[in-house]
Amino acid sequence: MTNKTTHALELHDVTKRHGAGDTAVTALDRVSLSIPHGTFTAVMGPSGSGKSTLLHCAAGLDRPDSGSVVLDGYELTDADETALTRLRRERMGFVFQSFNLVPTLTVAQNVALPLEFAGRRVDEREVRGLLSRLGLGDRLDHRPAELSGGQQQRVAIARAMLSRPAVVFADEPTGALDTQAARDVLHILREAVDASGQTIVMVTHDPVAGAYADAVVFFSDGRIVDSMTRPDPASVAARMARLSAPVRPSGHAPPSAVRPSGHVPSSAVRQSGQAPSSSVRTSGHAPSAPAPQNGRARHGGDGR
Ligand SMILES: Nc1ncnc2c1ncn2[C@@H]1O[C@H](COP(=O)(O)OP(=O)(O)OP(=O)(O)O)[C@@H](O)[C@H]1O
Ligand SMILES: [Mg+2]
After folding, report:
1. Greatest CA separation for the chain
2. 50 lines ligand 1 (CB under 6 A)
3. What pTM does this model have?
């Protein structure tokens, strides 16, 4: 079970540099972020702004140079490789743009694989039930190559969620899908938060995808520069356009979204020690309280 007394995920002053010397890149620059249980957070920003690095550090796939990452109450930055591997298997799920299914295994075998790696018992009825809910009940014995992209991604989501992880990380999960398949996947992710209290952190470039989340965190140059609760596609697109626009010389101060200080606006996502902030679903908080309703209200009419 998750520890309801903590956030699902907390980053405190996380810095990560790639490379060394003149070519070194600061991919994350003192990033702090708190994400409550049972919420859906989108991470957005220009290419190269550090979104994937954030996910990798948050999931213990990469080690920050400094700062701390606490997942479901466990400090990752202190953990050795064995402990990290166990935490990843037991408390995290991953969904990637490229699905990453094992081509020689069936759909059902792919979904069960992480639990088998972890030496845990696989309840085949649960696998079947989950795949049926994702519209794949008649595809259990198919191989990935026999499925559409959207179907493959739904298998990957089932695989990520079977163990009921504390956090599912998704890096551009709809990036390789057509519009309808993307909507189906987003609807499934939204539903997992609303119906099961799943916590999801999703990187996306798509404002429509971002608007499925409870909150959007905007990155630029390795820093959180803004955040938005109850996002809608038009507002997210407008914010993204400002982030991606070339900096124009002007007489007055830049808007907060591109302020080079890089510090999160005070009301945004920092302040991990306090009452959760207003951005990343920062109420007190009951996992399925206001956020899910927002999601339903906005998206209930589409998808599957
Ligand atoms: N292994 C690496 N070695 C060197 N530099 C890296 C490495 N991984 C990432 N970087 C650099 O760190 C910065 C952040 O990269 P990251 O992949 O996190 O960006 P991103 O926001 O996910 O971009 P995209 O939207 O294109 O996926 C970029 O400048 C990138 O070139
Ligand atoms: Mg990336």
Report:
1. 64
2. yes
3. 0.83
